[in-house]
């Protein structure tokens, strides 16, 4: 049953909060912990549906995952040491879990069936299946979507692969497979994508080499037949979840908000950079490093925003934040042109279309030109619309946040999927003063 929810114009969003752990890092921590020798302790793991799917998959493959107070412990089986999984691996809504785990499974001579929910079963898998097949993964049928049956091999080949799309999921799947191959596996990326896999592989003791080449592309190489050792991982706050709180503070006049311990890895901060270009008052405090990742506190005060051009090369560093940015652009003065958004069409929904439709439902002038989204901001947003979330958590949260600053209430048709990435969204927002209900 769909669960609709309405957001109303709110008083200032003020206080000091922490957002839950980063989703990308949480997936990787569970996977690398399962592939390491010995015990890994993970603090701050995101307890959301998507991440639990990865925990269950690793458990089905023989890596014991257990709770230890507020932390999680994983008993790793070593690279090559995972066991045969009985039955089907169900990845729910999670593209990251399914694609990264395909990379892991490539190294094991066992037949595995992978499936997911209706949204995941529409998303392209050939982007990972193609390089993994070059390495030796067998894929039954000529399919691009889940459900899929695959069979890996102990005799994977190391490859050099240039990414045709800027995707950290594809890069990570190849690097994870590369751990199980002899020799060195290299991924070349034309634009930098999030580098948590590289950082965490190093943290667990793998040999990883990253080179920026003369033409500006990056070559990431992992040493094969790797030996990983259990580690102590502290997962920083998710900047993609913080984005909604930041946006709420920007659009509700008089807001003054501090978000503590947010991941500030430069491959993830495009949204904050863009907001600063738009004139947002965002300060970074207490910057430091933890478990190989830069983190800090964000101090946000409500601000008058102006429209900007967001260049295509910034897209990978803020790919999940475009629905929220587009909604914020509606509150800005002038045009915001977000360029090079082809990858948005293959997310949990066609986010380019879903965002444009949501904006139209809220009385905002927006249109798509090729792969670009153009929003004409007038400083105020009428609201009053019903937004279709299309099984997409980020569409739901972006438009609820828009509703906090709009003239008329905004209703989203289903908040069920928010639990995939940010189950605490409603209590956290409400606790800060957001009118949701
Ligand atoms: C992710 C990478 C991104 C992002 C997704 C998480 C990851 O996808 O949209 O939410 O953890 O690697 P792509 O790498 O496919 O762009």
Number of helices: 12
The shape is globular
Bound molecules: shikimate-3-phosphate
Strand order across the biggest sheet?
Answer: 22-23-1-24
Mean pLDDT: 97
What is the radius of gyration?
21 Å
Beta content = 25-35%
Descriptive tags:
437 residues; alpha/beta; UDP-n-acetylglucosamine1-carboxyvinyl-transferase, Chain; 4-stranded mixed beta sheet; 24 strands; binds shikimate-3-phosphate
Overview of this structure, please?
The protein has 437 residues and is of the alpha/beta class. The chain has 2 domains: 5-21 and 237-436, UDP-n-acetylglucosamine1-carboxyvinyl-transferase, Chain, CATH 3.65.10.10; 23-221, UDP-n-acetylglucosamine1-carboxyvinyl-transferase, Chain. 29% of the residues lie in helices and 27% in strands. It has 12 helices and 24 strands. It has helices spanning 23-35, 49-60, 95-105, 126-135, 168-178, 196-203, 239-251, 270-277, 322-331, 351-361, 393-405, 425-431; strands spanning 5-8, 14-18, 37-43, 64-68, 71-77, 88-90, 111-115, 138-139, 148-151, 160-162, 184-189, 208-212, 218-223, 232-234, 256-263, 281-290, 293-301, 309-310, 333-338, 365-369, 372-378, 386-387, 410-412, 435-436. The strands form 6 sheets. Strands 22-23-1-24 form a 4-stranded mixed β-sheet. It has a 4-stranded mixed β-sheet with strand order 2-15-17-16. A 4-stranded mixed β-sheet has the order 4-5-3-14. A hairpin with a 2-residue loop joins strand 4 and strand 5. Helix 7 runs parallel beside helix 9. The longest helix has 13 residues, at 23-35. The radius of gyration is 21 Å and the shape is globular. Bound molecules: shikimate-3-phosphate. Shikimate-3-phosphate (S3P) is lined by residues 24, 96, 167-169, 172, 193-194, 319-320, 343. Shikimate-3-phosphate binds next to helix 5.
